[in-house]
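Colleagues,

Please find the record for the two-part complex below.
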Amino acid sequence: MIDIQNVTLAYADRVILRDISLELSERRIAIIGANGSGKSSFARLLNGLVMPTKGDVLVDGLNTRTHGKDVRQKVGFVFQNPDNQIVFPVVEEDLAFGMKNLKFSKEDIAQKTTDILSRYNMLDMREHPAHLLSGGQKQLLAISGVLVMEPTYVVLDEPTTLLDLRNKRRITHAINALEQTVILASHDLDLLTDFDRVIVFDDGRIAIDDVPSVAIPHYIKLMS
Amino acid sequence: MLDLYSPGHSPIHKLSPGVKILAMMVGGTGLFLVENLGIVAVALAAVIALYKIAGLSATQVWNQIRPVLWILIFFLGLQWWLAGASVAVFVVLRLATLLLLAGLVTLTTRASDMIESLTSGLRFLRPLGVNPAKVGLAISLALRFIPVLAQITTEVREAQKARGMEHSIVAVAMPVAIRMLKMADDISDAIDARGYRP
């Protein structure tokens, strides 16, 4: 479970999140809100990319302030733009990066690379230059790079925003098939209908926290 | 090294990158020590034979020379004018051999293996405060983001062209610089998120 305790986040005088307290324990949780509502900052708090100005974030009891490395292994993070997440020039080299950081053996790295690329039908791209992949393939590579680190939670920050319809469907399918707990920040309401819980952010506060059938209409009303 | 690597299982592919780099350095130095056109011609033939052993095609040999063809032609003309035909041919053959040798190393060595070798090779700089792992990551990032930077520059140039400002260097350079700085922040977060600790 991820426990958010009285979290406030501010950059200089600008308050992004205001005294948020939440327990995240469902398998599929969505975070929605207008641009600047604080949802991306909230997502970044969950694996310690951003530290709260006040309050604490606990992941399975581990505080992001004091157990950053353990928290990052537990909470994988997929960014909006895969181009900014893929850090090595070749597909298999990029997949190996996170595993090397976690000191996986060479044999383990090779096996997990084969497994994850087979899962997404990308095995023949193992030695491909990453910059030549399509947008959807890049996002799948970014997701793969996180999954090989065997996280318990996967946080995705608007993973379909830059994709066309076909690739959006491909990524949606990949997200739905994840065994891990998924926390998804998105504008894409079609993605969220099967989720267990939707949290709507508005001006750094939680406007509503409920099942999709209640929260999504509330959000649409809020936006109009 | 971006997409030059040509996957294969030849004996040259299997050699350690350190050995290949060392062989390239020794071969390159050797080429500058000889003054005989015949030896350079033999060396060129030997390097081309190594391409064959590595399972590389004639097109891949040509692709190493093609980008610098005009420079080679320029040197050929200049040397011919300054020192005569045989010296001109000697200089150009030597340069072509060196280029092909360097190309052979990049075509048969993955970027990650090259960087790993470099990282090991830089260990002796640790007492001076140099972190070889950081140097390795910096080189990887540079290789990875050269095409991204090229893409961003193209996008910005097209956007400015649409506004009639294609000749303004500032109008292109400023947005590219801002996007790169923003991207650098995101990349730094992405590296952190994947558990990197140098």
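The CA atoms of residues 57 and 63 of chain A lie 6 Å apart.

Comments are welcome before we finalize the supplementary table.
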